[in-house]
Design goal:
The protein is α/β, with parallel strands linked by helices and about 450 residues long. It is built from 19 helices and ten strands. Bound molecules: 6-O-phosphono-beta-D-fructofuranose. Belongs to the GPI family.
């Protein structure tokens, strides 16, 4: 169960209701596929459309990886890996990779191709050299530099370990259905492939094979995850904003943006939700940051970051709003033990658990930031379980599509990302970019 509490958002019910017609129009744009970017809204129905056969194939491949690998390397960047990482980290042991094989029973999961650091890849190779591993390379375009470099390198390592032919049986490619460098290579080499649907963009792809395969390898029940998404699809289908918390969230952030709250900070109180914040940042940043508009999405981990960013949030420039993910039942807790000497003066906490203290940190921070003129929206999760997490992912995807339409942008393209790539190619002397390269070198 997910609840939205906007009592500390500084937005009144009537203001939200006043968005009724705008939201209705956004709703129909999305569902009738009549809005900007309408060829990329396949994610809306994917959870009910994905075939049983495809899910079974994902599960059986994941079982093969579990049976023959100590580690899976997920190669991808942005939407091609963040959703899987967010889900795996949210729902697994905090020290998943460090557990013994007996405790974990599923392969360690490593991520590559999400940066261009030689040190990172070098260090990863050190780790992989002693392990049996498989690769899930994920790239819709197949031409993204970061994952392409990592794949080239790690494929070589696989080949060195197992020989060319056996290495192919440890490579799983998730890519476009018909075009692109990775698709061509997969066809040529005979890799087992999974399709990123043509009408689903990277940042909306976590609930497709992009996220589902690595998530399944980590032991998480992908059927339950999709059930959560399907439940969200039904629950947030209501065009009436008064009865749809997903649309209320989309409206509140636009109301606050129009009042000058141009930065939204996603807050969590559970370290395992760190990557949910990373995924959410891409989802909203890439969807809304265009045409010189858009809320800047930031994320913090509390209480950790209260000791670093807390000062700014309380007292800095007042352009901030916060969206807090509050987990009511984390499943595990620790009591605070009594100490006879009580030199640290903490014995007053002995009747409490760490979750009790975390809850008071949340309440105290909420009131302090609200008093400091930072509107707070609370997204309350009854539990942090697979079903609820699937529901939450879909909640944000839909809120993002609706919010983008409310803002008047195309929430499904990302033209701005190309600028750095073009410059980087030119500076690297990629054939075809010579002229731009000369211009840029003069500017440096
Ligand atoms: O799956 P691909 O094509 O490698 O793209 C990865 C990521 O790069 C972008 O295209 C641009 O950064 C994202 O939208 C996407 O999630």
């Amino acid at each position: 169960m997910i609840k939205l509490n906007y009592s500390k958002s500084m937005v009144k019910e009537e203001e939200i209701s006043s968005f009724k017609e705008f939201v209705k129009s956004a709703h129909y744009k999305l569902h009738l596929k009549s809005g900007l970017g309408n060829d990329y809204v396949g994610w809306v129905d994917y959870p009910i459309e994905v075939s049983k056969k495809e899910l079974e194939r994902i599960k059986s491949v994941s079982e093969k990886i579990v049976s023959d690998s100590d580690a899976l390397v997920v190669i991808g960047i942005g939407g091609s890996y963040l959703g899987a990482r967010a889900t795996i980290e949210a729902l697994s042991h905090s020290f998943y990779n460090s557990l013994s094989n007996d405790q974990r029973k599923t392969p360690e999961i490593y991520y590559a191709g999400n940066n261009i650091s030689g040190k990172y890849l070098h260090d990863l190779i050190d780790v992989l050299e002693t392990k049996n591993f498989s690769i899930n390379v994920i790239s819709k375009s197949g031409t993204t530099t970061e994952p392409a470099i990592a794949f080239r390198t790690l494929k070589k390592l696989l080949e060195k370990k197992y020989g060319k032919e056996n290495a192919k049986k440890r490579i799983y490619a998730t890519t476009d259905s018909s075009k692109g460098a990775l698709k061509n290579l997969s066809d040529k080499e005979g890799y087992e492939t999974f399709v990123i649907p043509d009408d689903v963009g990277g940042r909306y792809s976590v609930l497709t094979p992009v996220g589902l395969l690595p998530i399944a390898v980590s032991g998480i029940d992908i059927t339950k995850l999709l059930e959560g998404a399907i439940s969200a699809r039904e629950e947030y289908m209501n065009e009436n904003i008064d009865e749809n918390i997903c649309y209320q969230y989309a409206a509140i952030r636009n109301i606050l943006y129009n009042r000058g709250k141009s930065t939204e900070i996603m807050v969590n109180y559970e370290p395992s939700l760190h990557y949910l914040g990373e995924w959410w940042k891409q989802l909203f940043g890439e969807s809304e940051g265009k045409d010189n508009k858009g809320i800047f999405p930031a994320a913090v981990d509390f209480s950790t970051d209260l000791h670093s960013m807390g000062q700014y949030i309380q007292d800095g420039r007042r352009n901030l709003m916060e969206t807090v993910i509050k987990v009511n039942d984390t499943g595990l807790d620790m009591s605070i033990s009594e100490d006879e000497a009580n030199l640290d003066g903490l014995n007053y906490l002995c009747s409490k658990t760490m979750n009790d203290v975390n809850e008071k940190a949340f309440e105290g921070t909420l009131l302090a930031h609200y008093d400091g003129n930072v509107p707070n929206v609370i997204i309350e999760l009854e539990k942090l379980d697979v079903f609820t997490f699937g529901k939450l992912l879909y909640f944000f995807e839909k809120a993002c599509g609706i919010s983008g339409y409310l803002l008047g942008v195309n929430p499904f393209n990302q033209p701005g990302v190309e600028a750095y790539k073009k410059n980087m190619f030119a500076l690297l002397n990629k054939p075809g970019y010579e002229e731009l390269g000369e211009i840029l070198r003069k500017k440096l």
